[in-house]
Design a protein that fits this description.
- By secondary structure, the chain is mainly alpha-helical.
- It has two domains: 43 residues, no CATH class; 33 residues, no CATH class.
- It is 29% helix and 5% strand.
- The protein has a two-stranded antiparallel ribbon with strand order 1-2.
- Strand 1 and strand 2 form a beta hairpin.
- The longest helix has 15 residues.
- The chain is elongated, with a radius of gyration of 19 Å.
């Protein structure tokens, strides 16, 4: 194994069948667990407005809405939540 395996923090995920821990490098999540990129450690979701519109278009309530309607809904949602 390359690098510094003694310094590496392992992913906290455990295999169902063998019961062994994942051996990949883990990143600290908000939940307090370390997760690797395979078990949910790197993705943060869409950050740009275009990416959010594209993601919302795949949801059933927004399937037949235009980009402008979805954009308006996203901006209203962010204003009300204070982000």
């Amino acid at each position: 194994m390359a690098g510094k395996p003694l310094k590496k923090i392992q992913c906290d995920s455990i295999a169902r069948h063998s019961g062994l821990r994942c051996r990949a490098k883990g990143y600290l999540k908000k939940s307090g667990f370390y997760r690797c990129r395979f078990h949910g450690g790197m993705a943060n979701g869409a950050t740009t407005l275009e990416g959010k519109i594209k993601a919302y278009k795949n949801l059933l309530p927004f399937k037949n809405k235009t980009d402008e309607e979805i954009k308006k809904w996203i901006l209203n949602k962010t204003k009300s939540s204070g982000v």
